[in-house]
Design goal:
It is built from five helices and two strands. By secondary structure, it is mostly helical. Strands 1-2 form a two-stranded antiparallel ribbon. Strand 1 and strand 2 form a beta hairpin. Helix 1 runs antiparallel to helix 2. The longest helix is centred in the N-terminal third of the chain and has 21 residues.
Length: about 120
């Protein structure tokens, strides 16, 4: 419940000053909820890293609510089928296109690593 105040809508007051208000229940989207869960997962991973632990029951529970991330093989297959590297000066310039396709289902660091390896081939 403490995370819900993060769900806000930006406003511009009559004076021109920028402010925000909390979202009403009907304005909250699935993406808003997933964003909160992702934030909690990131926070828990930071705590685990500091305590030198691999995982926790809390992290496992949170992870069950998130959509499954795409794997290396799926990203590589999509890149082979859909990216024409002749359009780019280097393979890293395709990062935006790949991330736009997969959205938050792909780990940006993994995509970066895959594209970096393409330059080496």
């Amino acid at each position: 419940m403490s995370e819900y105040p993060k769900l806000t809508v930006p406003l511009t007051l009559e004076s021109g000053k920028k402010s925000f208000r909390l979202k009403k229940g009907e304005e909250i989207t699935d993406d808003d909820i997933l964003g909160i869960i992702r934030g909690l997962v990131k926070s828990e991973k930071t705590v685990l890293e500091l305590t030198k632990k691999e995982t926790s029951a809390y992290l496992e529970i949170l992870s069950t609510y998130l959509p499954q991330m795409v794997g290396r093989e799926e990203i590589e297959a999509w890149i082979k089928e859909n990216i024409d590297f002749s359009q780019y000066k280097n393979s890293m310039q395709a990062m935006g296109t790949v991330m736009k396709h997969f959205g938050k289902l792909a780990d940006g660091n993994l995509v970066k690593e895959i594209l970096g390896n393409i330059d080496k081939k």
